[in-house]
Amino acid sequence: MMKRLITFLGCFAASATMVSADNMRMAVTTSFHNSGLSDSLLPAIEQDIGLKLDLLVVGTGQAIRLGKAGDVDAILVHSRSAEEAFVAAGYGTHRRNIMYNDFVFVGPKSDPAGIAAARTAQEALRKIADAEAVFVSRGDDSGTHNRERSLWGAIAANLDQKNGWYRSVGAGMGAALNTASGMNAYIMSDRASWLNFGNKGGLAMLYAGDPALFNQYAYLPVNPLLHRHVKTTQAKNLEAWLTSSRAKELINNYQIDGEKLFFFNAE
């Protein structure tokens, strides 16, 4: 009986060791996941540093709330003002640039608002508002939604949903793109999600290139002084990998249909 008990305890200890192997939870944006980049990075992270990542795929606003609550060990998001506020309030230890891409305006191939001829992102939105062409907004407090709101704010557009043309859907990037495709509407998307989107229908990318559409992604570890259970060692190891030459190679070489989706710029 004693021998059986010792064997059981030995198996239990081995099982416990396996459960406690390096792993961590990270909240990431839907655009990071929808782009397909996570499918390229996660296996390499596990192979290179033995770290298994559990991703919570949400908008930036929700990712920050998860970080504040200590429900994740780190966040990877793209809304600089919200990120800086997160660190300033003590919820995150610091903010580290990892990579960037850009936002683009997508819409009906016929382009009824004529945004393809716009000289700036603000002019493109003004054309949409003046034409009262249907525009789908994520409306989910994500990094994409926040940037879109700031651009609308710069032209003082009236976004009252009673107008009918502005449709806030409260959804992630993939779901919002599906809505835009179904309605043959305009939408602002990150380039990676658009290129990886399979239900384009009658939509096309119509406007891009304004510096105002620059889209920076950053990594923020959750502060262990507020949440003692967070996995600081694993978070540090992941940061070291995300800023390494190995990550640079994978990020810069990730393409869809021959087009690069992200550009590594970790400092």
In the CATH hierarchy, what is the superfamily of the largest domain? Answer: Periplasmic binding protein-like II
Regarding quaternary structure, what we see is: single chain
What is the CATH class designation of the largest domain?
Answer: Alpha Beta
CATH architecture of the largest domain: 3-Layer(aba) Sandwich
Radius of gyration: 21 Å
Please report the distance between the alpha carbons of the first and last residues. 59 Å
Structural write-up:
It is a single chain. The protein has eleven helices and twelve strands. The chain folds into two domains: 24-100 and 215-264, D-Maltodextrin-Binding Protein, domain 2 (3-Layer(aba) Sandwich); 102-213, Periplasmic binding protein-like II (D-Maltodextrin-Binding Protein, domain 2). With 267 residues, it is α/β, with parallel strands linked by helices. The protein has helices at 2-19, 30-34, 37-49, 60-69, 80-88, 121-131, 143-154, 173-183, 191-195, 232-242, 245-253; strands at 23-29, 52-58, 74-77, 96-108, 135-137, 166-168, 186-190, 203-207, 214-221, 255-256, 259-260, 263-264. Strand 10 and strand 11 (259-260) form a beta hairpin. The strands form two sheets. Strands 1, 2, 3, 4, 5, 6, 7, 8, 9 and 12 form a ten-stranded mixed beta sheet that branches. A two-stranded antiparallel ribbon has the order 10-11. It is globular. Helices cover 43% and strands 23% of the residues.
What brief labels describe this structure?
10-stranded mixed sheet; 43% helix; disordered N terminus; 267 residues; globular; alpha/beta; D-Maltodextrin-Binding Protein, domain 2; 2 domains; 11 helices
